[in-house]
Amino acid sequence: MSISDDLSPSGAAAGQGAAIRFEAVSKSYSKPGGGRFDALSEVSLDVTPGTITGIIGRSGAGKSTLLRMVNGLEVPSSGRVIVAGHDVGAARGGALRAIRRDVGMIFQHFNLLASRTVRDNIALPLEVAGVPKAQIKPRVAELIERVGLGVQADRYPAELSGGQKQRVGIARALATNPKVLLSDEATSALDPETTQTVLQLLRDINRDLGLTVLLITHEMAVVRDIASHVAVIDGGRIVEAGETYDVFVRPQHPTTRSFLSGVTGVTLPDFVASRLHETAGSEEVIRVTFAGQHATDPMLALLGRDLGISVNILAGAVEEISGRPFGNLLVSLPAQRGAEARAYLERHNLTTEVLGYVG
Ligand SMILES: Nc1ncnc2c1ncn2[C@@H]1O[C@H](COP(=O)(O)OP(=O)(O)OP(=O)(O)O)[C@@H](O)[C@H]1O
């Protein structure tokens, strides 16, 4: 059942166009010793229908609080969360239940019932929704097929691997045909290989069902691998948001940069990192980011040819984000020519960032 079948029209005009809209959402909690603590401050974000959108932040940044507002598990202290045109915080009773049917959720620790088989875990939301038994059976079989658990259908959670448990979680979340799937660190407890298979399943579901996926994570690699859009949250505020590719290529905020330094290739070799300092030295160490068609351009060779500046390559990688090439190089060059070299590279649409100095 869709939300609109069940809800009063009062909120219907709100949040048009966005699958989920956060409108100046704040949340504060009482502190044990008195006073208030702001877990979220004035968060505004539109999640485009059909996208996979990642919210990334450190522990305590407010990710879970934000996610849990989408299905009404948390209520904003001020502001509104609009899902498919309806104000979640204002919904009660049948209206809130309808929203929850339209918003599936998967969890880091799977949250399966140990006493129920795979089949019966997946059936649970349908039972709760009052779906007739005769309809539950074929629906569960279809879901088991979709997540590739045919062999395990009659096993209990304790007999499954982490990846299989998460597949059950995904099937259960899809049972009521939601429009939105929330993912709360769904791959954080899984090894890298299993993570990739679960991310692939989420991608397939997003593509095949046109479902909007909103995921929270503290790993930029997850965002890179799956999300078309990303919002970076820091201290309860969104500090940067946009298409993943743009945020990777032109990160604006230091928090975004620090998340990116773990994934975009390229960590400084130890022998350079240990000598790096902030005050001027004879060699400047810079990060050069290449995007789109420039990823394969021999810009550093041109720098030598046009300006006579020779560059040492310290580390580098070219990868693909949202199907587009993206390269990242760490180089050192003579510090007295640094500004000139960076201006040249920027003129050729590369992005540069000074990391420090050696010598
Ligand atoms: N019920 C609550 N009462 C008081 N403080 C809370 C409550 N829930 C969350 N907080 C606080 O709000 C802040 C944000 O918590 P939240 O769980 O949203 O962060 P998070 O980014 O999801 O972190 P993690 O990745 O560690 O789960 C934290 O400082 C947390 O301690």
Automatic annotation (TrEMBL):
<dbReference type="Pfam" id="PF09383">
    <property type="entry name" value="NIL"/>
</dbReference>
<dbReference type="InterPro" id="IPR003593">
    <property type="entry name" value="AAA+_ATPase"/>
</dbReference>
<keyword id="KW-0813">Transport</keyword>
<dbReference type="InterPro" id="IPR050086">
    <property type="entry name" value="MetN_ABC_transporter-like"/>
</dbReference>
<dbReference type="InterPro" id="IPR018449">
    <property type="entry name" value="NIL_domain"/>
</dbReference>
<keyword id="KW-0029">Amino-acid transport</keyword>
<keyword id="KW-0614">Plasmid</keyword>
<dbReference type="GO" id="GO:0005524">
    <property type="term" value="F:ATP binding"/>
</dbReference>
<dbReference type="Pfam" id="PF00005">
    <property type="entry name" value="ABC_tran"/>
</dbReference>
<feature type="domain" description="ABC transporter">
    <location>
        <begin position="20"/>
        <end position="260"/>
    </location>
</feature>
<dbReference type="InterPro" id="IPR017871">
    <property type="entry name" value="ABC_transporter-like_CS"/>
</dbReference>
<dbReference type="InterPro" id="IPR003439">
    <property type="entry name" value="ABC_transporter-like_ATP-bd"/>
</dbReference>
<dbReference type="InterPro" id="IPR045865">
    <property type="entry name" value="ACT-like_dom_sf"/>
</dbReference>
<keyword id="KW-0472">Membrane</keyword>
<keyword id="KW-1278">Translocase</keyword>
<protein>
    <submittedName>
        <fullName>Methionine ABC transporter ATP-binding protein</fullName>
    </submittedName>
</protein>
<keyword id="KW-0067">ATP-binding</keyword>
<keyword id="KW-1003">Cell membrane</keyword>
<keyword id="KW-0547">Nucleotide-binding</keyword>
<dbReference type="InterPro" id="IPR027417">
    <property type="entry name" value="P-loop_NTPase"/>
</dbReference>
<dbReference type="InterPro" id="IPR041701">
    <property type="entry name" value="MetN_ABC"/>
</dbReference>
